[in-house]
Design a protein that fits this description.
Layout: E1 8-12, H1 16-27, E2 33-38, E3 44-45, E4 48-49, E5 52-53, H2 54-57, H3 61-64, H4 75-103, H5 117-123, E6 126-127, H6 132-135, E7 141-145, E8 148-152, E9 155-158, E10 163-165, E11 168-171, H7 184-190, H8 221-232
Parallel strand pairs: 1-2, 1-11, 2-7, 3-6
Antiparallel strand pairs: 4-5, 8-9, 9-10
């Protein structure tokens, strides 16, 4: 916080980390201005929508039934989904409009993401903290869709030639996972797929002993660390036998 006090801050990214940084700087009135520079926006979900807490609104079986069918769904489930698809679309569209209205998206703030809310929740959706909604109304916040072309002494120049003043730049970008650092024969045993690595409880590769990926797939590093300790002691290790 002290580094950004009274300074112009540019935050690169629009994920959870970027939003948390922007929220902390703006709500505490630490930074003189904050610019969110992003390539693709994500849906920032407030703690409540239409007066309903988000944990009751999104994390319930009723809302889960509004999602597209899982790939293992039966023919009957897929047929039911096809029948009620218009109702599901109406539900999600209404929720998106409510979020847009509450957070005043657009007009120099985050634009509505190109991906619908249900799809974005699977990989990029984010639940704002209590100060998140307040942040979206701050005059000191500016959101720009673009990329940096080069850095200059007192700011950055974007690909479209626009100059943005900056004293502090925070990188909050995402990343792509790569397992190229592992030896070829080990990667072969891991059976790395195009969409990633399948792990037992998001931590242990069933075909390779004495190896674990803690914190690689999902949050919950503490739980995974405990599970890794148990597996090292010969407990809770997956088996290929059914």
């Amino acid at each position: 916080m002290s580094l950004a006090r009274g300074r112009r801050v540019v935050i690169i990214g629009s994920g959870k980390t970027a939003m948390d940084c922007a929220s902390g700087l703006l709500v505490s009135r630490c930074a003189a201005s904050v610019t969110l520079l992003y390539r693709s926006a994500h849906w920032p979900v407030p703690r409540s929508v239409l007066g309903i807490p988000v944990r009751r609104l999104l994390f319930s079986r009723a809302v889960a039934s509004m999602l597209p069918p899982y790939y293992t769904a039966s023919c009957v489930d897929r047929a039911v989904h096809a029948i009620v698809r218009p109702l599901k679309r109406l539900f999600w569209r209404g929720l998106e409009c409510a979020i847009n209205k509450k957070l005043h998206m657009g007009n120099g703030k985050l634009e509505a993401p190109p991906v619908g809310l249900p799809g974005d929740l699977f990989y990029g959706g984010q639940i704002l903290d209590d100060s998140g909604a307040e942040m979206m109304h701050c005059e000191q916040l500016t959101a720009i869709k673009g990329e940096i072309n080069k850095f200059v002494r007192n700011g950055v120049i974007l690909l479209d030639g626009t100059f943005r003043p900056a004293d502090v730049i925070l990188y909050c970008t995402g990343y792509n996972k790569s397992y190229d650092y592992l030896e070829a024969d080990l990667r072969l045993k891991l059976e790395v797929q195009k969409d990633g690595l399948y792990l037992y409880r998001n931590c242990l590769p069933p075909h390779v002993r004495h190896l674990a990926f803690v914190g690689s797939e999902v949050s919950g590093k503490t739980i995974q660390s405990v599970a890794r300790k148990r597996s090292a002691n010969g407990k809770g290790r997956p088996s290929r036998n059914p």
